[in-house]
Amino acid sequence: MKLFDVYPLYDVTPVSAKGIEVWDDKGQKYWDFYGGHAVISIGHTHPHYVKRIKDQLDKIAFYSNSIQNPIQEALAEKLGQLSSCEEYDLFMCNSGAEANENALKMASFHTGKSKVIAFNNSFHGRTSAAVAATDNPSINAPINKQQAVTFLPLNDFEAFEKAIASDAYCAVILEAIQGVGGLDEPTTEFYQFIAEKCKKHQVVLIADEVQSGYGRSGKFFAFQHHGIQPDIISIAKGMGNGFPVGGVLIHETFKPSYGLLGTTFGGNHLACAASLAVLEVLESEGLTKNADELGAYFREKAQDIPEIKNVKGRGLMIGLEFDFEVADLRKKLIYDQHIFTGSAKNKKLLRFLPALNITKEHVDLFFDALQNALK
């Protein structure tokens, strides 16, 4: 049997990693400024994270959600405290796509409606309703296209007001910083307008924080830059630092019932141990503040490189826009400078999504390598 060939692969085989350093099977060291799509939030093999998981493995790794699991409760309490979202309840799952599926399902249950408003260049996952709300026809199969989704331009007040006034929608789903789409953002005025209209029309506002959450934007959640309160928040990526875990924060005004949502693997003991470790490191090392400060330093450094035409994003969810497509530049960075970076739907954008505990020295190293690759 061979692997189903759906990924274009770089010729690099990582075998070990520590912090943002990664070594391949030939002993070559790389610097990871992409974190596997913003997943590595506290650095590869962080000692506290490793210890948490090893200690849990010695006790119990998994049991279903049919029993008491105090680690889930501890995680919910810690997450509420650090995110300032104590008025939400946590439902745990396994991925960002699953988090968004459950968020959309809750919105539909709550309103009795099925249509969704999403935005141009959005990315919410690759499954059922989540991929239907993703602005990429090439990954939407006919079965997904049965979902009724209206795509609107970001920051278009008139188009949004006209659409939501039809009273046909169960949810608006929105990334505060678009990830795959290319780091575009709603303005504060637009996000607040969305929140106001959702409340007026009794439409559920879903904040997709799968990539932008957990301190990456310089606040715990990126929507917190805009002074709004979503009804539902979806999380994943950096939540487990590489352990497959996702979650949905559901406002306490939504009432649960047995069987409304469910999962086999979500919230298992190992997942909770990994997730608690991430929160503990975020708190003890002040990583949200570090993301904010290094995002500002990154922008400062970018001003010294004339080839950079624009800097997009916030904190350590940031991108450099050039006036040329960056595919060849990414190859030079990997093979010549041994630097991992990311791409986007915007082919002129180089994405930078490192662990949140990088230093100014790491940012300097990145820009030195970038300048060498641009020569």
UniProtKB/TrEMBL annotation:
Coiled coil: none
Cofactor(s) required for function per UniProt: pyridoxal 5'-phosphate
UniProt xrefs under Pfam families: Aminotran_3 (PF00202)
Superkingdom of origin organism: Bacteria
UniProt keyword annotation of Transferase present: yes
Keyword set, alphabetical order: Aminotransferase, Pyridoxal phosphate, Transferase
GO MF annotation list: transaminase activity
Similarity section: Belongs to the class-III pyridoxal-phosphate-dependent aminotransferase family.
Protein name according to UniProt: Aspartate aminotransferase family protein
Taxonomic source organism: Flagellimonas iocasae
